[in-house]
Amino acid sequence: MVFSEVILPEVVATVVYTVLGLVLLGISWKVIEWLTPFSLRKEIEEDQNLAIAVLIGALFIAVSLIIGAVIISG
Fold it and tell me: Hey, how many other C-beta atoms are within 10 angstroms of the C-beta on 59?
């Protein structure tokens, strides 16, 4: 069976690293929002500023790659 080959410590490590990555991504969002002189949420949601939305999306991808590389190398 497929499930007989699943090792519990690997599953737990995957869940822990996933939660850690999401927490770090949330912290990075708060830092980026804190560093900007205007409300990113207002610019994206209310003013429909596509340029800022694309920029924030690119930043999230970059931060996600960095967090993933750090977790894998550790």
Answer: 13
- Which domain does 27 fall in, by range? 18-73
Residue 1 in domain: no
Long-range CB contacts (within 8 A, 24+) of 26-31: 28/59, 28/60, 28/63, 29/60
Number of domains in the chain: 1
Let me know if residue 49 belongs to a domain.
yes
Q: Computed from CA positions of residues 21, 18, 65, 56, in that sequence, does the dihedral angle turn out positive or negative? A: negative
Q: Is residue 41 part of a domain?
A: yes
Tell me: the pLDDT tens digits for 39-73? 888 988 999 999 999 988 998 898 888 878 877 77
Q: What are the percentages of helix, strand and coil residues in the chain, rounded to 5?
A: 80, 0, 20
Q: Is residue 4 part of a domain?
A: no
